[in-house]
């Protein structure tokens, strides 16, 4: 805009799509290198996806039917569709521990389900370090032991910091253990 170029929305969309297509081989190579490691760290976070003018009733029903068609365990079956023009989605990050893949790989999805995690780790063999989300903790059963889960100490430590107001002495003691561990 500062240079006097005001491309249409469709031109910008085409540029983004072309960039994605061009970078796909690099992304796939990064994934292959990262998932060769025996230990991979992972986490997910909610992201508010803007849907411009909002979703029509038909689009909301299509999304709801996709959600209903997924797994129906205790896991979350978001996204929460809102008429305000947004929907809850998820960004998933995977990171290694050594210099063979000194970067993070990100995925995005509309839902937080076992199927999403399983698709990301379809070719992976090793241990993932993550929080207590059931999509991680039950992965060993779903993959016949090909992928194992190890709990993340950062997430475990957070429980002790959250308990400081209720149990300050015990919490301080546990947090000092973590300080020693991290040191």
Structure, explained:
This protein has 183 residues and is α/β, with parallel strands linked by helices. Helix content is 43%, strand content 22%. It has seven helices and six strands, in the order αβαβββαβααβαα. The chain has helices spanning 9-34, 57-68, 114-120, 134-137, 139-142, 153-162, 168-182; strands at residues 39-50, 81-82, 86-96, 104-109, 126-130, 147-151. Strands 1, 2, 3, 4, 5 and 6 form a six-stranded mixed beta sheet that branches. A hairpin with a 7-residue loop joins strand 3 and strand 4. Helix 6 packs antiparallel against helix 7. The radius of gyration is 20 Å and the shape is globular. The N and C termini lie far apart (50 Å). Residues 71-75 have low confidence and may be disordered.
SSE layout:
Blueprint: H1 9-34, E1 39-50, H2 57-68, E2 81-82, E3 86-96, E4 104-109, H3 114-120, E5 126-130, H4 134-137, H5 139-142, E6 147-151, H6 153-162, H7 168-182
Parallel strand pairs: 1-5, 5-6
Antiparallel strand pairs: 1-3, 2-3, 3-4
Helix pairs in contact: 6-7
What's the gist of this structure?
Helix content is 43%, strand content 22%.
Q: β content, as a range?
A: 15-25%
Specify the biggest β-sheet: 6 strands, mixed
What structural category characterises the helix and strand content? Answer: alpha/beta
Fraction of helical residues? 40-55%
How far apart are the first and last residues' alpha carbons, in Å? 50 Å
Low-confidence stretches: 71-75
Count up the helices: 7
| Total number of beta strands | 6
Mean pLDDT equals: 86
Rg value: 20 Å
Shape: globular
**SSE arrangement, N to C:** HEHEEEHEHHEHH
């Amino acid at each position: 805009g500062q240079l006097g170029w005001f491309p249409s929305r469709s031109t910008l969309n085409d540029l983004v799509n072309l960039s994605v297509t061009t970078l796909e081989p690099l992304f796939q190579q990064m994934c292959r290198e990262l998932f060769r490691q025996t230990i991979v760290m992972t986490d997910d976070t909610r992201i508010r996806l803007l849907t411009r003018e909002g979703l029509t009733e038909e689009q909301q029903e299509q999304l709801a039917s996709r959600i209903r068609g997924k797994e129906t365990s205790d896991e979350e079956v978001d996204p929460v569709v809102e008429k305000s023009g947004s929907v809850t989605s998820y960004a998933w990050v995977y990171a290694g521990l050594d210099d063979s893949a000194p970067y993070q790989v990100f995925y995005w999805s509309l839902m937080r389900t076992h199927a999403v995690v399983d698709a990301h780790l379809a070719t992976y063999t090793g241990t993932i370090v993550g929080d207590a989300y059931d999509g991680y903790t039950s992965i060993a059963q779903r993959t016949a032991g090909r992928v194992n889960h190890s709990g993340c100490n950062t997430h475990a430590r957070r429980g002790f910091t959250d308990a400081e107001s209720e149990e300050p002495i015990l919490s301080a003691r546990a947090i000092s253990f973590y300080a020693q561990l991290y040191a």
